[in-house]
Specification:
- This protein is of the alpha/beta class.
- It has 2 domains: 1-101, Rossmann fold, CATH 3.40.50.170; 108-213, Formyl transferase, N-terminal domain (Rossmann fold), CATH 3.40.50.170.
- The chain has helices at residues 13-24, 42-49, 65-79, 95-98, 121-128, 163-186; strands at residues 2-8, 29-36, 54-56, 83-86, 105-109, 132-139, 149-156, 190-193, 196-199, 209-212.
- The strands form 2 sheets. An 8-stranded mixed beta sheet has the order 3-2-1-4-5-6-7-10, with helices on both faces. The chain has a two-stranded antiparallel ribbon with strand order 8-9.
- Helix 1 (13-24) runs parallel beside helix 6.
- The longest helix is centred in the C-terminal third of the chain and has 24 residues, at 163-186.
- The radius of gyration is 17 Å and the shape is globular.
- It starts with a strand and ends with a strand.
- Bound molecules: 5-O-phosphono-beta-D-ribofuranosylamine.
- Residues 8, 10-14, 43, 87-88, 108-110, 171, 174 line the site of 5-O-phosphono-beta-D-ribofuranosylamine.
């Protein structure tokens, strides 16, 4: 059975979507552990309540960023994950750590990359006048919010949208595409060719480009 380790920092709703999909769809994989860089994040409570092994690598508990990165890398290495999922993990990982998990580390980002990498994506999308926004699941490369794109969910920006209404709709799309992308990866159905990722033998309803209301 493959081992997934999920890294979180905050609310943990994407982590929960993964836990739900893993158990409801009876994946041939398990969430081996959740690692949080914040000891009191809601994600920690959610992981505990689900009985998932929780490791806290407190970002404020180290003298330097390097010491934190070292501890995070050691914690991950001990868990021997087949796949690492960054599900709202709000730290930039060092290149050396990313390179230890080539095409074995996924990230969910709340924009249609390559548009709006980084923070405050919903506000930036609204301010830009874009009519379409969304979310992206991608393999992680050392560059921030970059790497081969596995799946994207797009939705229309409405005139009445505020940052919070847009964020809520994007989040609900995230909860759909993240488990889907993880499952495709676990099933060995993703072929990576440079920046492009192709899904093997997609069924009629399966697509890497999804449209949400
Ligand atoms: C999500 O929007 C994710 O895309 C971004 O941070 C947010 C985390 O939300 N990277 P949650 O902790 O999964 O609820």
């Amino acid at each position: 059975m493959k081992k997934i380790v999920v890294l979180v920092s905050g609310r943990g709703s994407n982590m929960t979507a993964l836990l739900d999909a893993c158990s409801e769809q009876r994946w041939n994989a398990r969430i081996e552990a959740v690692i949080s860089d914040r000891p009191h994040s809601p994600a920690c409570d959610r992981a505990r309540s689900r009985g998932v092994r929780l490791e806290v690598v407190d970002a404020n508990g180290f003298a330097s960023r390097q010491a934190f990165n070292q501890s995070l890398g050691d914690t991950l290495a001990c868990l021997q994950p087949d796949l690492v999922v960054l599900a709202g993990f709000m730290r930039i990982l060092p290149t050396e750590l990313v390179e230890q998990y080539p095409l074995r580390m996924l990230n969910i980002h709340p924009s249609l990359l390559p548009a709006f990498p980084g923070l405050h994506t919903h506000r930036r999308a609204l301010d830009s006048g874009a009519r379409i926004h969304g979310a992206t699941v991608h393999y992680v490369s050392p560059e921030l919010d970059a790497g081969p794109i596995i799946a994207q969910a797009a939705l229309a920006i409405q005139d009445v949208d505020t940052e919070s209404t847009l964020a809520a709709r994007v989040l609900s799309a995230e909860h759909h595409i993240l488990p889907l992308a993880v499952k495709w990866h676990l099933d060995g159905r993703l072929q990576v060719d440079g920046a492009r990722v192709r899904l093997d033998s997609p069924a009629a309803a399966e697509t890497q480009s999804m449209w949400f209301a």
